[in-house]
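Problem statement: downstream parser choked on a complex file, so we are re-checking the raw output for the adenosine-5'-tetraphosphate run. The parser issue turned out to be on our end (a line-ending mismatch), but while we're here, posting the original submission so the record is complete.
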Amino acid sequence: MFMEPTSTSNKRVFSGMQPSGVATIGNYLGAIRNWVAQQDQYDNLFCIVDLHAMGTLTDPDEMRENIHSLAATMFAAGLNPEIAPLFVQSDVPQHAELAWTLSNVTQFGELSRMTQFKDKSAGKDDAAINSAIFFYPVLMAADIILYDTDLVPVGDDQRQHVELTRDIATRFNTRYGDTFVIPKADIKEVGARIMSLQEPTKKMSKSDANANAYIALSDDPDVIKRKIKRAVTDSDARVSASPEKPAVTNLMQIYGILADLSLDQVEEHFSGKGYGPFKAELTDLLIESLAPIQAKLAEYKANPEEVARLLEIGRTRAAILAEAKMADVNRKTGVGGKLHR
Ligand code: AQP
């Protein structure tokens, strides 16, 4: 009955990122780096999900700037638009159209249980909670299944939303007949959850009001140095990983991914050295790792027409697929004035 992905080649990969700020090393290590690493293995589509960011970003100039800057960052980080088209969500209106259709097979209770909604609405009055935060997973489900996606490479924070997407797609297929491929989350063990540098029990986020909580991919060496210096550590001075030491464990994780070392190897490397030398080496490694991305980013930023041209190529590719899928969905649900069956 359900269209589980079967083929091992030409699997469709789809993933998105909000232009809600400048991409952080959390976004890079948890998502972009993996998209780039496996882009030649799959049939990819990547998306800047601007509609999702409207709740966070209300200044239109900032929205425009962030969209183009995030696109430039992704190209600079190695996304190849020839094999991994990148487009902007609102340029393909079928995302919003399908989200409405899917809201009819999504339960209020399911959306109420989403931890991201609970986190983002915690402690706020009802009047201060935008309904878009509540509806967000439905639009995300539409983003994914509009393209017959097999795999969704995301960080661990998005696991629950992909699970809900599977339930929504399955319910639609049951009601209207096989229409959507049921996608799977592709979450890597390493880098899936990079934590805030200021509150290590909270994930690193690009929209964090405290800029010291994250390293942005565009941060220059002085800023990186200052942010790592201010990063919180744990009570004793040992560079060792454990659940009781979330701050140092997080910094060790970042070091380990960039140096291609396991946590044990990082611990061994800094054995007897203390936090000072550890932070100094971590700073150097971050500066060195981000330098090539930043050099390319400067080139793309100097050529905004090229970024817009590449986004248009992505939009064209996405639009062909989206229009066909939405026409099929509308035919199956019976909406519209055409005499199709
Ligand atoms: N801290 C993180 N560690 C690992 N992966 C992360 N991702 C986000 N934060 C981390 C992954 O980045 C991708 C894009 O996420 P998004 O922009 O769509 O929304 P998000 O998950 O809410 O990311 P942010 O940075 O926290 O954005 P804001 O601040 O706007 O809420 C996803 O694959 C995500 O898993």
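For whoever reads this later: Residues 1-8 have pLDDT under 50 and may be disordered.
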